[in-house]
Amino acid sequence: MTAPAVSISGLDADALGGDDSILMRQRRDHARLDAMMNRCLSEDLPPGEPDAVWSDIVQLVFSHAFAEETVLWPLLRHIAPDGEELTRRVEEEH
Against a cut of 0.85, is the pTM above it? Predict the structure, then answer.
């Protein structure tokens, strides 16, 4: 039987390996992406700004996904007993 998944959302930086850990970097990416999406949806953007924000979103999403695919998922598949299933579920949710 597989242990239930535990969210890391409530863990602090030390518990996630420090401020420079991949998990903290990914957490910051999620916060930045949320802020950029809200900015992009704002009705008070000057002309041309939505395109600039969208460009920043695309760049962030690409680098974020690259870190997941090249660092996080391979490591998780290797160290977690149910790593294949877990990463498959996460990838489906994304």
Answer: no
